[in-house]
Amino acid sequence: MADPNQFDRYLAADGPAALVVREWLMPVEGPDGVLFPATFAAGDNFPGGYNIDGDPLGKNVCQVDSVGSQANRIEPLFAEEKYKHLIPQIVVKAGEKEVNILGAGHRAGDALVRCSELQQTLQDGFKAVLKGNAEPLAKIAPTSLVFGVWDSRDTQAKLPRLVASTIRAFNVRRLTRSAQFNPATEFVNDKLLDDPADKATKDAYAERGFIHVPASGSHGGVIADGGIRRDATLGLAALRLLFAGKDERKTLTLRRYILGLALTAFTHNPSGYLRQGCLLVLDPAKAKDREFVEVLPTGERKPATITHDAAVKYATEAAAAFGVGESKTVPFDKERAKKDVKGEGDTKTKGKKGKKAEVKVDQPEIVGGV
Amino acid sequence: MPSLLCLTIRFLQPYCHGRGDGAEPEWPPSPLRVFQALVAAAAGHWNERMRLEYAVPALRWLEEQLPPLIVAGSGIRSEVKYRLYVPDNVADKVAKSWSARREASIADYRTEKDVRPTHLVGDTVHYLFPLADGVCPHFEVLAAAARSITHVGWGIDMVAGNALVISEEEAAKLPGRRWRPVTDSSAGGLRVPVKGTLNDLGNKHTAFLNRVTGDGFVPVPPLSAFKLVGYRRDSDPAKRPIAVFQLLKPDADGYLPFDPVRRTHVVAGMVRHAMRIVAKLADKPEKWIDTFVLGHGDGPHSQARADGRFAYLPLPSITPRKVESIRRVLVAEPAGGSGADVRWAVRALSGADLVHDGRPIGLLAATAPTEPVVQRYVRPAETWVSVTPVVLPGHDEARPAIVERRRLHAKTAEGRQAVSVHAEQRTERLLRKAIRQAGFPPELADHCDLEWRSVGFLAGVELAERYIVPPYLDRLPRYHVRITWRSANGQPVWMPGPVAVGAGRYCGLGLFAAGA
């Protein structure tokens, strides 16, 4: 049984400001293997593609997985069998689709979740946060306290993220690749289709795979000569700003619960399959360079060691002491959605529809040919 | 013993996304940004999220302090920004579609978000507030609040905060670049809090919490209680206030051109003479006329030793084809000047005669520094090339012919190489010395890239030795030079003009133009 006090020094007023992990990764193919970072759409002086920036020290740095993307990978682990006991499983059902709050883009503040019978509970939870009591929100949406939340459609309550993780590659060499799609048969030559009379028809044939389509010089991944590193931070100072009103005992219980969830997320290695062509594992050659430290307000860094198993054990005990909220599956309420007159989103100007947050580049099929 | 309140922000990842005015990346984080973080931290620490009370006296004291000295590592802006598309909080629209057995997607409801981080070399920023009597009256409260600061910049910019009272000696040892508040309006501005900022923040917070009502969205008014203060790094040169004059024929019906090879210092002399005349007419103090206008002092050749004087810089016009005649002259105050002297010069000199050998040959007419010809000499640029040769402040190794003779006399290839290297090093040392003497920060003088030769770098520029110089400079070596400004860590530095270097820098020699 885990000692419930074992991490109380992280919750003390004079405790460390943060825990920081820096660990080196590599493509599963090997340290000189090719990996495919995230790609971004072109626009406004950005040519699109990989985000590779000049490093202040003369090299370059390439974003492999952003903070937001890492959070989207980490948070859903609390729905997995091993972890689901730690939090209430809140699911909203709309038609035939079910969305767990863990997958809702705006977490407890998401419009999907507020347009259900949970609306009042969530509103009460956010109002309580504004009044200095995060316990009600922790009962229904504790991971919102870990990864941050903004109730932009209603109370405007905001809580910062406690855990941030990002993966970057250093001193990368950009590669290109070329390929050619060859149709299953020569549709035009074999008279199965008419010769395309104009460009529009030719384009339509190309779109449907009826003619050969070359793709030259497109993104071909990178080789990270400077290595790949995951940096993760757990903000203990931010965690210590969570209160259960003026009740010190309840506040400690709440903080232990959230710390348990945060340590579970923090020590879980979300690398692995990030996207096609980007499967990362720990680099054994740089295991000794792994850094796991407590950062004090003075800047002093002290080694720390918390295994993932120890974090999960602690989280389990802390969750039991806190009392995990009730799991619920609730229907999406169309009527509530109609009545919800509280503006839309964060009220910034709308961008273009149909754009993707990250353009995932799949490897093209090479059918015969080059 | 003087002491300082040192508010420290330590970034836990090597980047920051804070934006300043114009949505440009901001580094270092402005004192106002940190003040806001402190206010938020105080609200969290003492659990007063709706209305701040406990820390109010401390924060009111802090907002009224003078703008702090900032000590920070370098921040390098990303070269390009990248664009994200983040989902709007309208999943209810998507769910409505699903409920009707349709297939809407949240991908259809996204907002563009441009990301352009500042990469950090060094993770720490210190804000140093002088303490009268060496005492910080609200230290305990400010320290507790500082240690509760969690983010500065965006929500992904996690930090650790701290506060200490330190001595000036300890402050001097803090690693990083010094950013000092200055009155020079040309320095980049950072927002700082003022009396009333805390109240304004409170009002804005209340407005933010009430921005979504039953009647729709109510915009939140921007923060207005702050001021913009110029900040400059110790390594940044101060801007030189300037005035520019056209050289016109006596009847003002056209330019009065001069050959830059033969007449540069002559034109400078004529303008200086005109300045002396108008200064006497305006009853300016004799000592000021003698030193500031005429540049006299107790140095060699009666030249001033210090740089407190006007520089008279004849400007050859630079066209796409070549460098042409002098048709304008730029008058510059020393770096960091207030601009009062050049403003007076504009009023006094406009319409004044240009006199040569006792007779008027033309007149001066004030013109705007925004003219394209002038901008080539003043706009910020990384690379600058000489239009008139730089006269070294000393003798370099020897004339090229002598260096070549020494090479031939060397017995080995290594010996010949050593002769050449030694000669080059001597010249380079003198050039860097000249740059420092011109008032540029030592860091920039020591780390800029230099090329020098007799042949000019611009079409239309003559060999360096063909330029006629004042007699007292005639025996000093001169070269055409190309400077690429770099910081100590090799980063490009965009230097504003005018750039004039070397022994004749007050009379138009060693004048540089921004590289193409």
Name a few traits of the molecule.
heterodimer, A: 370 residues, alpha+beta, nine-stranded antiparallel beta sheet, three-stranded antiparallel beta sheet, 10 helices, 25% helix, 26% strand, globular, B: 516 residues, eight-stranded antiparallel beta sheet, five-stranded antiparallel beta sheet, 13 helices, 22 strands, 27% strand, elongated
Descriptive notes:
The complex is a heterodimer of chains A (370) and B (516). Chain A is α+β, with helices and mostly antiparallel strands and 370 residues long. In chain A, 25% of the residues lie in helices and 26% in strands. Chain A is globular. The model of chain A is unreliable at 342-370 (pLDDT under 50). By secondary structure, chain B is an alpha+beta fold. Chain B has 13 helices and 22 strands. Chain B has helices at residues 31-45, 56-63, 91-99, 139-146, 168-172, 197-209, 260-281, 286-293, 340-349, 372-378, 400-409, 413-437, 442-447; strands at 3-11, 15-16, 69-77, 82-87, 110-115, 118-131, 159-167, 177-182, 188-193, 212-213, 216-217, 226-233, 242-248, 311-318, 323-332, 353-356, 359-367, 383-386, 390-391, 449-453, 478-484, 512-514. In chain B, strands 1, 2, 3, 6, 7, 8, 9 and 12 form an eight-stranded antiparallel beta sheet that branches. Chain B starts with a strand and ends with a strand. The mean pLDDT of chain B is 90. At the A-B interface, helix 2 and strand 14 of A face helix 1, strand 4, helix 3, strand 5 and strand 6 of B.
Please describe the biggest sheet of chain A, giving its number of strands, its sense, and whether it closes into a barrel: 9 strands, antiparallel
Most extensive chain interface and residues per partner: A-B, 86 and 73 residues
Q: H/E series of chain A, N to C?
A: EEEEEEHEEHHHHEEEEHEEHHEEEEHEH
SS class of chain B = alpha+beta
Q: Roughly how many Å is the radius of gyration of chain A? A: 25 Å
Number of strands of chain A: 19
Determine the N-to-C terminus distance of chain A: 60 Å
Shape summary of chain A: globular
Number of helices of chain B: 13
